[in-house]
Amino acid sequence: MSTPHTRLKKLLSELSPSTSGSPQTIGTLELGGISYDVPAPLDPTRLPHCKTSAYLDVRDGFNYDGLNFMLQKFLLGQDVFLLSQPGLYARRLVMTFCRMINSEYEYIALHRDVGETELKQGREIRRGGTLGYVDSAAVRAVKHGRILILEGIEKAERGIMPKTGKCENIAATGHRSPALTGYRNLDDGTYIIHSHRYELLDKSADEDRLFMPAHKNFRVVAIAAPVPPYPGYPLDPPFRSRFQARFIDPVGSLTALETPDTPGRERPVLYTKLREIILSAQFASEAAGPLGAILKSTLPQFPQTALTKLSALCTMFSPPTVLSPNQLAILVLSIHPALVHASLVTWALLSRQTEEAGVGTLGNPRLGSSEGATGLLGYSATGIERVGAKSIKITFVSHDGTQAIVQAPAGPRPLHSFNLDPKFASPRFKGLLSAFLQAHALGWDISYVPPALPSTASCSTSTLIAVFASLLGYEVETIHMYKELGGREIAMRRKIENDGSTTWEPRRRLEGRLVHLSGLDAVGPTAGSLARLVQDREIELWETKRIVSEVDSGEELSDDLSICHPSFRIIATASKAIPLKDWLTHEHANMFFTFPSQPMDQEEECKTVLSTGCPVEVVEKLLAFAEKYRNTLASDSVQKNRKFGTRTILRIAKRMAMVSHNGDRSSDELYVLINRSILAEFLPTTERTALETLLKECDIRPGRSALNPSPIASSKGVIFPDGHNLQPTFIPKFDPDQDRDGVAKHIPHMDHFYENSLQTGLMRDLAVDLELLGEHLVLLGNQGVGKNKLIDRLCQILGRPREYIQLHRDSTVNQLMFQTSLQNGVIKYEDSPLLRAVSLGRVIVVDEADKAPEHVVAVFRSLAGHGEMSLADGRRIRFERERENDVVVHPNFRLILLANRPGYPFLGNHFLQVLGDNFSCHSITNPDAESEKKLLAQLAPDLNKNTLSRLVAAFQDLREGYNAGSLVYPYSLRELINVVRHMNTYPDDSLETALRNTFDFDVYRKETIQKLSAILERHGLAVKNVGLDAARAAAAKKPRDVKFEPKGDTSLNGPKHGKDDPKNEPHQGGNQWAGGTGGRDTAGLGGRGGYKRLFKNHEIKQIPDSLKKDVPQHIQENARRMAQGELARRLEELNLSAGDAAMYDRLLSSVQSHVVQLHDLLENLAAKEEERVWIKRQTDGELDFGRLADGLMGEASIYKKRGMARPDPGRPQIKPKRIRILFDLSASMYRFQHDGRLLRSQETAVMLMESFVKLDRKDKYVWDIYGHSGDSPDIPLVETHQAFLELKDRVKVVEKMDMIPQYTFAGDYTVEAIEKASQEVMKFDADDWFVITVTDANFGRYNITPEYITRTMAKFPRVNNAVICLGDGLEVALLTQKFPRTFFRIQNTADIPNVLRSILSSMVEK
User: Fold this and answer.
1) d(C-alpha 607, C-alpha 614), whole Å
2) Among 229, 396, 1007, 1153, which is disulfide-ready with 379 (CB 3.0 to 4.6 Å)?
3) Numbers of helices and strands, H then E, in the chain
4) In which domain of life is the source organism classified (predicted)?
């Protein structure tokens, strides 16, 4: 008998009780005048098994109404769609209904990763290599007559829902059954048809044995949040039409979930008043119109569980009537965490409500640590003692002495003493720990949310979790989340047995452990698939397996039914790489008891840093700088800039403790270490200037550079002599006995390494971090500066075995872990170089880290910071072996990431933001001139030393040109080495020939060639031709391959256009046709005597040079006059005079290099926004090794292909960036134009217009240029609709800029211009808004105060404002000092184009 027949026969025998006769009843349900005979279950394991407290109170009128509606629809054979705000109420309503009618159920949590396997049938390889089919929950519900619960409909992509709709439709209507349409319903070859149609089949016919009936009691209950206002996909109309809808009133669900009143006990006053505020906020948000939502004039809705948490908390911990501002803020943020990223207007509205209610004033939402000395409601934990194998007793005491003793679950390990180490147990830490313990006692899982501020001191996340676990006797199971994890993989993992058979098994996290979900924000909305596990302690597993919260008395557990351990708890933390607003939603708030992070204050941070042994005066300087630097970081710039957290400061302090004995040298070292940690070398010009200002304010100054002598290697180690004749640095050599195989095969070998001072100093610093301080490293630099060579050389002299991997755009997390292979039909996983390095204690070099997706690089964060990583095969990387299959991190393991510098022109991913402070960063630059000379002299000993010095100086100037913005390519040591090697190897070739190897890339970059010529000439390097001239000069030395010798008359009569051939046929020679080649007099190519070139897409036949040169002088002059006349005619067509054209050409030539850089940056950013990613679950494309097991089972969608990434539900689509540039056109610009300010402003306008006009993707940027003068705050120069601005219009713009200041009246409308511009740009539907203002900052004369300017900008917090100040007044100094990332002071007007380009680049590259 075939497999489908066998499966069908077995299934029909199981269904026989339901298809033959009526099922046995156990009683009658009376509800709302409806009677229903409650049947006995066929499979009691599929009944609801929620805790008693999870079922809704039927006596509540709101719940009663919902249950009555569901019973009506059930009896009518209709399916139900429950529309509810995110939360657990709708699911609990369905579970209560199933419990009431004793109905079995199946459950599917929908998310973006749900596919056909989860909704129809999956495949597994059974023992012996046979293929087995596994029914999904949806199919089981159809077959067995269960209620199918689909939760999260709004998260599922529209194309997937018809799969469930068809199953539902089969059960509901006979005329759409597969038996009549010929539709093959299931992958195993069986058909599901309507039960009535099944009864009509001839059971004896073989062809009818593949059919099976859909159970008459099958129903679907769908649950979704309404879209809008909540994020998600809209409903597919055919799918929607199959359901009967019921909207669940948010107020009703809020109140239905709160803890019932205790008889004889009044609700606390604090609870009653906050409850009124929460309900008022709900009513107010519903009543607000569209404008109110935009203006945020109403309070946002509270999460569905707000009252649940508040009532349980106030019941267990008796609250005071009034809380301190900080305590009230912590409480509010705990029940409504999204307020942590809400606007200050929203916070002020809520504060007014709490004041009017009499519960106190809301404190700062940023929560200063010195104020958070207690837990929630002012309680502090004072003691913990065990009272059972799985339970403890926790004692809490409030400020007024009120005591609360509560019982809570605990782990099996011994409890750590509550007498905490004073090194970390600050009042802030104890307060957070107490709050964690309160949430734990209430039965909630915990989420510790990162600060809203972009850069802060440490929030003690890891220490908090470790101490919390040790106090409660828990083993911590850390699960590191990454973007590739699907919903099923979060709770389960595929297991491949030794014989090749496959199955799924739950991850061990579901046992009585404390599970730390690290980086939960990385998986986005898919995290919602865990909602039922978090809220109800229930989860559906593969192949009918289910974990429930409890079982009925006398009910036996089985393989299909198991209980979640009562001590199981979850703590979720975030990666801090994704903005809070993108993941901290109502769904997250309903899943966890959420606590906002509280960073250390300066006193606590100082105490921590001093523990390193760093001198007090150094620590004080360091922390003073840290505070200033953190305050200057904007929330957007922190995505690119280093955050300078406590871990970074500790790293610097440890290094400073090592050099503190060197006296004055330590001050120099502090300057170097701070610049290195922040990667100051790669900051934009404006930000680097601001950084230097901060360092000076903190009295941290650079010292004199020192010559670094070559290292001295010995059998014991390597000595790096000190350039200041101070104590040398000794680095011990690697012990070969620790890794014999690695020493034999994996130590890099370099025949030549040319020692030089700069790279020796770099190697010393890398060696200190790597070997003495045990740090992991990130090396960033331009191309060709020797990042790989430095590491290879260091590993060579230290005898360090090294592994190597290179990342790219297609790199995946699984590729970092394993190398997948298929052997004899069995999938095998081999450890990757990364795992070998971890276990054997080798150095692993990860190259091109900036090219891989950020979520891939993010896995290195936990590996470097905590020595932890979760592997796809169930193993874990840990510092210490806790389980048999743990991979233990070897003490010698070091991780080194190599990447190009951030920003233009490399445009790699901002991977630094996902790494945190877990790596020691080093910027690798080109060597200084002396180091470069020494290196090149060793490379080319026969080359003239004078020539070598001149080349070095020339390349140093080229790099300065790049840094200044006048050149667009960062010429590196690699290019210079290639030139020198060519000259040394081929001494007969000219310098011109050698330089072409590097500069032929730039033949059409006129400004680069001109700059190169000037630099070569300045340094005495005689080169006749460069660029295009050099290429043509070289070509002239060789015979031409193609020549055309004209026959007949070759005389010249005079230049003319010639006839235009309507057929556009090729013409060679002659004197008739325009656009021919090798002719005379006529316009064309390859001939002689014509007045202009004309190309008509034909092969060019070039006449000999001898004929070209033989052109009489009068004919040449005539041709020149005709060419000039033609140019004048074209200019007249453009309404331009020759003077206009010359003027614009001068302006353009001055900023051509800036135009190239700005255009390239804008173009590449537009392309990067549309960068394609791997789209999985495709039926063609490249094989996805992660689904190889599915492929063996016959699954078709096991491929992946490149495509545009779809945004997460609710995530806004990529929109244009709205930009307005404001130029100062006041009278003072004309009066003081002697310093070039007006001319530079015109040049800057030309730079902007040329850059934007040339963009291919003009739709990505909506821009305009306005002016402001003493007469008006908004003078239009370029409007947004002029994206295709003609040359004549661009010329008119600069002429207008020259003319307006000459005639305007005195006055200053700078502030009004900024306000008007901010209002205008915000009217556009964009994803970002920018206003950049150029002003001569003559504020004092017109009584414009800094406070007035900043107050005006503060009205538009979503607008990125920047002001370039040309003046020297006191106000300018104050503004640039207080707001260094908003106000930029220009003392040399020649810097205006460079600074504005830098500002615009920094703003848009986020």
Assistant:
1) 11
2) 396
3) 50, 48
4) Eukaryota
